[in-house]
Amino acid sequence: MIELRDISLTFRDVPVFASLSLSFDAGSICGIIGPSGAGKSMLLNIITGSVHPQSGQVLLGGLPLPAHATRARARAIAACNGARPGNPHDTVREFLLLARMPHKKFLSPFSDYDYQVVDDYLDAFGLRDFANETLGGLSGCTLRKAGLAHAFIGEPDVLLLDDPTSGLDMSSIAQMQRALSRFTMRGKRIAVAASNDLNFIAQTADRAILLSRGAVALDATPEALDAAIIKKYFNADVLVSRNIYNGKPEFHLFPAT
Predict the structure, then answer these.
(1) Could you report the per-residue pLDDT of 128-151, keeping only the tens digit for each?
(2) Under a CB-based contact definition with an 8 Å cutoff, are residues 49 and 225 in contact?
(3) CA gap 26, 191 in Å, rounded
(4) pTM here?
(5) How far apart are CA 240 and CA 176, in angstroms?
(6) Left if phi > 0, otherwise alpha if psi is -120 to 50, otherwise beta: which for 56?
(7) 2-253, CATH topology level
(8) Strands 14-24 vs 190-194: parallel, antiparallel or unpaired
(9) What is the pLDDT of residues 196-209, one digit of tens each?
(10) Distance CA 199, CA 206 (A)
(11) What is the DSSP secondary-structure string of 6-26?
């Protein structure tokens, strides 16, 4: 479990969070939503430990984040924020295999299991045909999928995705949804996705956390999101329908006039 306890943060003299407390339980896909500047990405950075709040703490498995050794934290938490990989000359397979480094024993080769996990996610994200292509030669969508697959392949306890649908086509979004469901289905892992794509969150997440003005404005299932909430916090008029397959809400902007 991940717990944020009384987090307060000011960034560039702008208050971001004030005594924010949240917990994330294993076996769930949690969506972080909110208007621009609400702190969605910052929240993920606090969980990874790359941003340090002025007060409060992050607990991983009941222990403060700094109490965990660096290698243990790398095994426990993986994040994908859309940053481009550092070496464009690596092949897709080489890049993905690097995600298994926190699990590899010192001076030992990668295991058969490491290679199997990579193969599984090459298939899950439709990357099999690109396995021997260099990262620098990939299209934007395919490179984005490689970055997402890299985060999954580490098999962390906590998977953090920042704006995960950015740059993806419809079939790739569906691949990611299936991968997220498989990732959390055994009830031992947590997935947290911060996104401006409300329809993706509504259709994918088990829980939606709406951030506004440094606090949690709503913490509920996606079914609780309605036109009034979207209008109040996103200043957008929407029509809300229900997906005929799962009953979850879908948001439709009114056409421009």
Answers:
(1) 999 999 999 999 999 999 999 999
(2) no
(3) 8
(4) 0.94
(5) 24
(6) left
(7) Rossmann fold (3.40.50)
(8) unpaired
(9) 999 999 999 999 99
(10) 13
(11) EEEEEETTEEEEEEEEEEE-T
